[in-house]
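Same chain as my last thread, 372 residues:
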Amino acid sequence: MTKYNLVAPCIFGIEGILADELRRFGFENVNAENGRVLFSGDANTIAKANICSRFAERILINLGTFKAESFTELFDGVKKLPLEEFISKNDAFPVKGWSINSKLYSITDCQSIIKKAVVERLKTVYRTDWFSETGPVHQLQFSIMKDVVTLMLDTSGEGLHKRGYRANSNAAPIKETLAAAMCDIVRIYPDTQIFDPFCGSGTILIEAAMMAKKMAPGLRRSFAAERFDFIDANAWKEERGAAIERILPDVEFRAFGSDIDPEAVSLTLANAQKAGVAKYVKAEVSNVRNFKLPEGRALVITNPPYGERLLEIKEAEELYKVMGSVFKKSEGKKYYVISPNDEFEAIFGRTADKKRKLYNGMIKCNLNMYFK
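reply #2:
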C-alpha cells in the first residue's frame, strides 16, 4: 500500500492541538512545526484526515523537497519529481504558492517556471505536446523557505474550515478551526453546558456541539482528492462509514447563545440546523448586560467584538467592562474570552488565570482563561 508524506497547515498557535489530534487518529511520524504538522500515511489516512480533522486547514501531499537558488535549479528540481504518479493526462494542475527569505522571491515567475517544469515532465511520460486540463483539478502548491522548495498537492479543495454548515455569516465571524481549537482547550464533554453571549453566526456553539457528539466536521462536504485517480474511492467510503459509527446517538450537551443582533441569532439557529446539531443549540436576542448563568457547572466561550472591525475601540472596551461585571466568580463557572486587546485583563477587571496566544486570521489574540 502506497505511503505518502503529508502536510497539514494550521492556524499559528494550535500546532500542538492538531498534532495531538493526528496522533489520536493513529497516524504515523507526526511532527509539529510552525504553522503546520507533518505526518505520513496511506489513502485512508488522507481520507480520514480530511473528513475528521477539526483543526487542520487542509491536507497536502508532499511531492518533493529540494534546494533552488536559481530558476534553472527550480525547473530541474520540479522536473525530476514523479508527477505522473499523481497527475493523469487530462487533469488540471494550476500552481500557486509563496516564497520567504529566498533568492527566488517573484511568486509569478516561480509559478510560471514550476508550471513549465510540470508540463515538460508530463510531456515525456504521456508523449503529448498539449494538455487539455479538462479533468479534475489537482492544485499544486509550492513553498520556498530559505531557498528550500517544497512542492505539494492539495487533497482538500476548499479549506477544511468550510464544514458546509455556514453558507452565511455575520460581519466578523470566527474561523471554524479556531473555534474548534478553543473548544478543545476548554475540554468539551458529552454533558457540558456552554454559553456564548456574542454568538454571531453560532460557530463556537456548533463546533462545541459537534465535538460533544463526536461528529466529524467533514461529513457534510466533498474533497478534491475524491476525484483523484490514484486514491481508491473505497478509502472515502470506509472512513465516512467509520466516522458515522463514532457519532454518539444522544448527549446531554447543551449550547446557549445570545446576541444583540436578531439577524445573528437567526443565522445561529439556521447554521445549527444545517450542521445537524439544532437539538443541542439554542439562541435568543439579548444584550450582554442581561447575561446571567444558571446554577451548576457552566462554561462561557466567546469571541466579543474587537473594535477594529465592528465597533469603535472605546465601545469594545466598554463591552469588556460589562463582561467583567456579569461574568461573576462562582463555583463551577469558567470563562474563556478571546481578544486582541493587550489591556483586556485590566479593562475586564481581573487577571486571567491563564492566557494562550492564538491567531484569528492575521490578528494576534489571547485566549483569556478564568477557571479558578
